[in-house]
Design brief:
It contains ten helices and twelve strands. By secondary structure, the protein is of the alpha/beta class. The protein has two domains: 6-80, Ribosomal Protein L15, Chain: K, domain 2; 88-328, Four Helix Bundle (Hemerythrin (Met), subunit A) (Up-down Bundle), CATH 1.20.120. A hairpin with a 2-residue loop joins β2 and β3. The two termini are 24 Å apart.
Amino acid sequence: MKKHLNTLYVTTQNTYLHKEGQSVAVKIEKENRLRVPIHTLDSIICFGAVTVSPFLMYHCAENSVAISFLSQYGKFLARIQGPVSGNVLLRRSQYQLLDQPEHASHIARHMVLGKIANARAVLRRAQRDHGKNTALEAAQKRLRIYTQHLEKPLPINELRGNEGEAAATYFAVFPHLITTKDEAFVFKGRNRRPPTDPVNALLSFAYTLLVHDCRSALEGVGLDPQVGYLHTLRPGRPSLALDLMEEFRAVLADRLVLSLINRRQIQPKDFSDSAGGAVSMTDTARKTLLSTWQKRKQEEITHPYLGEKCKIGLLPHLQAQLLARHLRGDLDAYPPFIWK
């Protein structure tokens, strides 16, 4: 398994990254502001107008450090990575499953099971922290019914429908998880491309970070992040990374966003309206979220399947490894991550 180190997030506009010895040098306004040894990095994520020298690109490729380019507001644009090492037999098994609908659906079903179970756990935790709430109780019961549907094999289209209905149930009660009374954080439903309110702007940004980590985890064990089973195949779409992230949406991304809002670490002033009704985060908001995201990934948790303590940032890597073991035939089924 690839060792999980650190991610360098570059959000300051007009920053220039270049190679300096065995380090990544960050230059702002013609002055070096930071030097990071290459061996301490796992990846670099650049937001907006950030330039990377060709020599640094080569250096990162040689040291297995991926460079991702996102728009200033978090939309994925491109990714630069050196040769991906991986067992060709593992990838062949991954591709062959596309012609085995029952087996592919079996993996997708376990991922959806993990997603719904974790969404239900988030609602249960909120009810424990904030007291009795009939809406949350009803949603938990409906989500439990959806998990019961997943106890038996389902065709992939029916499985996707089940996942969609469960997500709608979860987000219908999401406003009950926001304890601040500020009108800026009123949540009226999930929207994206572009997000039209602060809560959705935060969720979309957190999901972008999560899918990046899942993609890196899959590539780290030799799997193709483009070939998934729950999400349909589409050119340029990291379908398997999107599959894997479903297990982590509620417990990693959603809880992070809720924490930032409820603890008032993010304020209404941290957002601005853009053309077409879009709402975007300010640099201050992005830096707050990124800092909190990195700290959260350093926290420890006991993995429910492995029974071992690990950092939260390692969870996608561990799940990617378990998926690879299943595809190799070492595990009878893929065990999803279920938060306890």
